[in-house]
Amino acid sequence: MYKNKNLDVQIITYxxxxxxxxxxxxxxxxxxxxxxxxxPTYKYREILxxxxxxxxxxxHFLFKKNRKFLSKYHILVYNTARQSYMVKYRGKKNYPxxxxxxxxxxxxxxxxxxxxxxxxxxxxxGNKVLDMCRSSADFSKTxxxxxxxxxxxxxxxENKNIExxxxxxxxxxxxxxxxxxxxxxxxxxxxVLDFFYExxxxxxxxxxxxxxxxxxxxxxxxEFNKKYNKKNNIHIxxxxxxxxxxxxxxxxxxxxxxxxxxxxxxxxxxxPCIFVNSHNVDWENDKHYANWKLGKVIxxxxxxxxxxxxxxxxxxxxxxxxxxxxYYTFGDQSISASKKIADEIIKLFD
Length: 350
Fold this sequence. Notes:
By secondary structure, the chain is α/β, with parallel strands linked by helices. The protein is built from twelve helices and twelve strands. It has helices at residues 20-28, 43-52, 59-70, 127-136, 151-158, 185-198, 247-251, 262-266, 304-309, 311-314, 319-330, 337-346, and strands at residues 11-14, 36-39, 75-78, 97-101, 121-124, 144-146, 171-175, 203-206, 234-236, 254-257, 273-276, 296-298.
């Protein structure tokens, strides 16, 4: 959209943050850095954030502080429903139209419900999420479009191949969710880490959901046992850029997790998947655990050794199903998602 000379496109983010990765991507796409607008929060909030050592300001206060400034735009684009504080002003004179871009494509409908009904345009990755929307709320009067998954294009342009382990051993990515009620980490995480600590026949990348060790309501980084960092076959990442830009997803040979939507990104290349059922969930007929049909499900970490030894045999049974669900989730990868989204946004000016 930036290259459309009829449009003035800007990226709004918070002031005093680490936006190194954003600036890096802009350079890759040959977009000048001055498109970035750094929005401030209230002064007293800045002081509190420093005292509390918060890396990011409260979204609520950020929007409240900048509401008048944001209202000057014709269109505002968000990638999470939690940022939709402007929705209540929708339709009022001189207020912008609102666009929602989904992120991730998991099986839980915590975003795809009535929270996004009031957006002027909703752009979804694929038909799976579209079906989830239609089954959870009445979207009949909403402008909702299937546009593809733009993150794949960014990863392709970034073209970064990282090397972590200097051996040919199989590499397993352990990617637990952050919510205590469904994550495998709280109950089984130590057992998983200990398995690879004691068994160096495999490499382990421990890259949990980026929130797990980065939100005060979850876990603290300083409480993580540093002994695992000392093993040559274990790589720990509690929340760097590489934990979200698909570098580990592309590098790993096996996915090990629970309910994180990152497994669908992993399926860009069909490979063995193992899911830890740490809460004894009756999952077979639960649509929120649809991804568990794409690999083996274990209740006990003692089962892991045998599954890893035989992965080349049993994983063949899941390849076709993985391909089918990947297409259902993200659609045709030969079509540019970014262009499709841009075209749909431009239509809002008509």
